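for the writeup, i need someone to sanity check this before i put it in the appendix. the sequnce is what the collaborator sent (i think, or maybe the updated version? ugh). structure was predicted straight from it, no edits. if anything looks off just tell me and ill rerun, i have time this weekend
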Amino acid sequence: MLNGVDLSHYQHATPSLAGISFLWAKATEGTGYADPMYAVHTAAAIKAGIVHGAYHFGHAGVDPAAQARFLVAHAPNAQLYALDSEGSTRMTHAEVRAFFAALKAARLGVKVGLYESLSGYDQGLGQDFNWVAAWGSTPPSIPWTFWQVHELGHDRGLHGPAGPRPLQGRPGGAPRARRGRCARASPDARVRPRPAGRQPVGDRDPQPRYPRPPAGPPREREVPPPPKPRVSGRASPGEVRT
C-alpha cells in the first residue's frame, strides 16, 4: 500500500515526506484563486523524488475551460491533475466534461482524475482515474485509483497540529486519498505520470472555509487607578497619615 499526502495553504510548511510515495497539492480554485503554498509543497515533492499532482477546486457557473486554463497556468509541470467537485459549488456533468476536455487539450498525455465522495460519485465524465472519498476501513464499492480514507481533523493523520492529510495506495497503482489527507491506490490502477486573489470557498479542509472579518482598531489600554495611600500609625477621624 502506497502512502501519500494531500496539502494546501492550510499547511504553512511541508511536513516530512519520509515514507511518502506521492503528494497532492491544491493549486487553484475557480478562476481567481491560486494557492500560495502550491509551489512550496510541490518543490518539496520534487526534492524528495516522489510523484506530485495538482488539484483544482471547481466552481459551478464559471467557464470550465477558463478554469482548466487557470489550473495549467499555475501548475504547468504537474505530473497528475484532479478536479475537486463538491459542496455548494459542485459543477454540473456538462461542466466537468468541458473542464476535462480543456485540461487534456492543454496538457496532452497527462492523466486527470475526479475527486468526489462515494455517495453520488460521478463516473464516466472524462476522467482517467477516480479519487473517491470514503471514510473508514472499507474500500469504495466503485473502481478507484485514489481512496480518501478519512477526515483527520486538525491533526490530519500526523502527530503535528498542522500536519498533512495522509494518503495510501495499493502496490502497483497510484495512491488512494484521505482528507490533510490519507489515500490508498488500487492494484489495478495504471496511472503513470510523465516525467517531468480570492479567498477559497472550499478546501476539503476541516478548518473554516471563509475569511475572518478584518480586525477592528486596537483597543486603548486601560490605565489602572492610582494606588491607595498607605496608612501608618493611628489617625484621628477624617485624617489619613502617609
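The radius of gyration is 25 Å. The CA atoms of residues 236 and 242 lie 13 Å apart.
thx in advance!!
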